[in-house]
Design goal:
4-stranded parallel beta sheet; 2 domains; single chain; Rossmann fold; alpha/beta; 13% strand
Amino acid sequence: MRPLIIGLLVIALAGCGARGGTENDGGDSAAAVPKQDLGTLKNVCGPGEPKPSGAQGVTDSEIKVGVFTDMGFSKKPEMVDAAKVFTEWCNAAGGIDGRKIVPVTRDARLMEVRQRMTEACKSDFVLAGGSAGLDGQGVETRLTCMLPEFPAQSSQAQARGADLQVMANGAALGYNDYAGFYSWLINEKYPSSKSDVGVIAGDSPVTKVMIGQHTETVAGVGGKVTYTGLYPVRGVSDWTPFAQAMKDKKVKGLVFLGQLDHLAKLVQSLTSIGHKLDWIDTTNNAYGPQFIQLAGAALKSQPSYADISGMHPLEKAAANPATQQLVTMFKQYAPDAEVNLPVLRSFSAWLLFAKAAGACDELTRACVLENAKKETEWTAGGLRAPLDLSDPASPPKCWNAVHATPDGWEPADFGANSGAYRCEDVSHKYTGEYPSPLTLKDVGKTMADLK
């Protein structure tokens, strides 16, 4: 998985474009939703007689779980939607050994992460299934109050792979999880592009770090970046100068780190001046119907792809029981909500928390965190390719890609060798110096303080 949606901060600063929605077939009726299982995960939730717990946020009948979101700023409710669907389904099955999960929305509104984290520290048992664009602002507070988290995704270097965290979609700390994807693009699919790759990003401190990381990754798998561009995070009225600069530099492959509507305009400008790229890495921000609608016919001449983090493609939900079940659950519990990539990531995090909590004899933060870290082949019941969650520095072994066409997204022909995924030993460990995630030592704490 790409634990980070590349460009998430850019999207937030620029008004938060759609992130990863896609069309899918309806599939089974709501009545077909299993009551306790999800995919290959059995008895995720169910009744029981829970033993007393002195943990914060836990009573004899409830577990209070915080859910971070930027919904008040982005207007994107995916984390809240996922929390609603998962907890209603889980609670209908009996909850976690009889305790109902109570999701508490922590709306950071982009700039209020620290405030919401302070509130969560006072009442929540853990954080699960959420994300915030500026999540790094809350890590020191979270570690100081010893609050574990199971995020759907993480954005900033201080947060991704920090202590008291298990990322259900992989942290890949110190690695770039696009390595296999880029190797396929430049060495197999479009080998003539390997010495003419461009990178363009919204101008922010976070994306400047990403430019360095992606540039060295392209080089690490045999390519060369010959053009780097920065544009104002809120976009520009005319993308022709950027398109012309790429044409002048003879760019053949492009890594785009930014907002999907900006990319759509750039694609159209490239087409207008007659410069056809071999490939574009849209990043999975663009994975959804909005990018298709905005880019339109230009996608015929500008091959555009996204690595979707090892998540089973929604377009093929009917071929994967776990994905189809999730789609059906949304039809039952939130029929007007969009099922998208952030939702899939959120569900993976919720499932990890529920499984780890259900395995505790006495429900404590330490027990849940310890159980989650035991997962060495985590697939979220089949929603995604397997990941080793026991080591946050473990690079992903499997990836998959989708291709944007004027008619919609579809799985790309990327050489899948394990079901819907390509699993191999292609990886790139960073050689540059980048910010590190915070640790308990940074706040004067140790694991002995976790109860």
